[in-house]
Amino acid sequence: MPDKIVLAYSGGLDTSIIIPWLKEHYAYDVIAMVGDVGQGDDLDAVVEKAYSTGASKVVVEDLREEFLTGYVFAALKAGAVYEHKYLLGTSLARPVIAKHQVEVALREGAIAVAHGCTGKGNDQVRFELTYQALAPELKIVAPWREWSLKSREDCLDYAEQHGIPVAASREKIHSRDRNLWHISHEGGELEDAANAPLATTWQITRSPQEAPDEEEQVKIGFENGTPVSVNGMKLDPVSLVELLNEIGARNAIGRVDLVENRFVGIKSRGCYETPGGTLLIAAHRELEALCLERDVAHFKQHVALKYAELVYYGLWFTPLREALDAFVETTQREMTGAVTLSAYKGNVSVMSRESEYSLYRTDLSSFTMGDNYDQKDAAGFIRILGLPSRSRARARVEVAK
Q: Which CATH number among 3.90.1260.10, 3.30.70.660, 3.30.413.10, 2.60.120.10 corresponds to the domain 178-354?
């Protein structure tokens, strides 16, 4: 019997041609693993396509809730945003898909795993570091680093030669990745950083010009940093994110056009749509502003930057990420409350913040003086803080003499 290999399969252009390629070049028994992270595909059609192109077995894993609760919400609580803009939609999905791919490989007795990532991108790192962390004994096959195909046009030619139907065409050449958290767009006109995205590039969000002329308010409730309700309705994680995606998308929220630094050292340009995630990040930040002590809040900004970098670089299954999660969890113990946002033509504004753990006190912040703060106390600590400056100034005077 031929050796088994498990392919992370999406049914897109790359993985569609990888099944016949693996059979031609390695004579593997190919098992296709489809990870449902909310990409919205017709999974029955994806399964049928995998079988029609040569897969011996197709395994579909519903990863939507695990993706959100175990990965997305962890990054949300950490405040992880890569290079100021990217909310890490693809970066967070890869480790959960790769984790289950490994589990399928071990369960099926496979000797190898494969993916459809290019040798220039970040995803190859994310998949393969997960494989190595969870099952280093498995062989890794990365066709893009082996075959002679050099471009998406070459892949289209290969698909046509092998009678494989693909959604991508020579006129519609974008590479897209969609899940519950976002949709990304690369290729086509976006390869030139001087080009604006086409109106047709955006897939799920309205443009500001098409958005309603009235603002829409949305109240997001949190428990220990985790979002649990929208407009007072308790929702499961998947339903909550789907609802916020609808609200954000119709109000033109969450579009990002980014030139980013890939892990391999290449600058790349991509566009992202993260409507619900943009609302959640804004609300969570405001809740922390209300409830998180100053020094913890300031230090957590450093943690957020490192956390985003780890996620982007594919270093999810590492001791450092686990240690950072432990720190973040302690900061979220009192992040319970609600934030009301206004969404209007691509803009997000804060309308209100409320929490029983609020550290904001009107008697202290008010311009009116009260019994809880004696302004005369300020003179002493200002003089102590100014001591080094005064000493340096006096020394300069002495030298000048």
A: 3.90.1260.10
d(CA 221, CA 232): 7
14, 29, 36, 177: which one is catalytic?
A: 14
Respond yes or no: is residue 175 known to be catalytic.
Answer: yes
**Per-residue pLDDT tens over the stretch 153-200:** 899 899 999 888 877 666 677 888 999 999 999 988 999 999 999 999
Among this protein's residues, is 374 annotated catalytic?
no
366 has pLDDT over 60: no
pLDDT at 357 over 70: yes
Contacts of 146 (CB under 8 A, 6+ apart): 25
Scan for tokens 């894993």, then name that residue.
61
Q: Tell me if the domain spanning 4-74+86-174 has CATH number 3.40.50.620.
A: yes
Please indicate whether residue 14 is annotated as part of the active site. Answer: yes
Q: Which residue has the tokens 């958005």?
A: 211
pLDDT digits over 129-147, tens only? 999 999 999 999 999 999 9
Task: Tally the C-alpha atoms within 13 A of residue 7's C-alpha that lie toward its C-beta.
Answer: 32
Task: Give the contacts of 117 (CB within 8 A, at least 6 positions apart).
Answer: 14, 123, 124, 127, 142, 144
Q: ∠ at Cα 262 (41, 20), nearest 5°?
A: 45
